[in-house]
Structure of SAM dependent carboxyl methyltransferase:
Amino acid sequence: MESTYNDFSKIQSQTISGTWDMVIKSCDKMIDNIKSKNERLSKLNSNENPNVIRILDIGSSHGRNSIMPINLIISNVLKQFPSQCFEVYHEDLPENNFSLLFKEISDNENSYIKLSNQIYFYAIGNSFYNQLVPSNSIDYVFSFSASHWDIYNDSFHYDKVSIGIIYKERSKEYKKYCIDNLYKNFSLRAKELKKGGIFLVTIINENECTNVENDSLYQLFCLFKTLWREIANENLISFNEVEKMAIPINVYKKDEVYDAIKLVETDHQLKLVTIEQNVQKFSDSHSLFLSDQEKSEILFSTMNAACESSLKNFIKGDQNTKDSLYKLFISKFLNHIKVSPLINIDYLFSYYSIIFEKIC
């Protein structure tokens, strides 16, 4: 059985909390733009806006972490336009369990749907590397902890010792690939946004000030590979399957992020409003007094919830075979950290928080 993302998404939730000031700032910017548009067109005789405001959530998974920013956005809009109607679109890959998403939105006592009886929500089973909604239809897009995901490419995502490429020498081809990926993401959101629309995105980036030894995620991903090799040594899975195992992520460099921003500003009039760099630490979301074993188990559970389905794709056989082998892997990991847990777990990753505004 796969891990439930909602149950192990505290680290991802902390990324949203760490960007909260930018959520507020970007929401205020959107509201100001809507007011200006209404005044300019002289379509209203009151302080209420009859048009639908559409919000697009990129990488929703099972929805729990999406509720907090959507609550803020809708609440702030309702203060200005009490009778406002909203449509919320939650995007994730087709294999996402959207039943859990709908259940979370319907049952969570803090759900945004409790703010008004004029809020409608939908799911989109598609990749954010495709256009998700009609052009010029969205007022606000946000994407937290999603933009590093990619489609697996053996030329760029394979690593001999780790399931996740975090520290990788950049060939000219890979650098161009990374810039193109970011540009595609940004430019598609530019097409989807209305004039005056806002795009808030976080981009995991390679922190030049941190080395491999201090990177908790990289150490975890190396241990993943080591334990899968043990299973291969027991002839339960082929070495070929294990060697190919990787999660398709890109950890972007500073110049790649800025190059993509320049391109999209020039080509699509998606204006950079604000960019900030943040560091995500384990201690931001969990107690400092946990044992190394407890920290290792929490970090594993969090990352495994995001990675499990990707890794199972490399295992040959039917679903029972995949589930059985993965259950063995989890057991091996938990037994391993009882004897030799990961140590000095704290630094996880750094990321850019970026606000864009569509200016025409």
About this structure: The chain is about 45% helix and 20% strand. The chain has one domain: 5-358. The two ends are 47 Å apart (CA to CA).
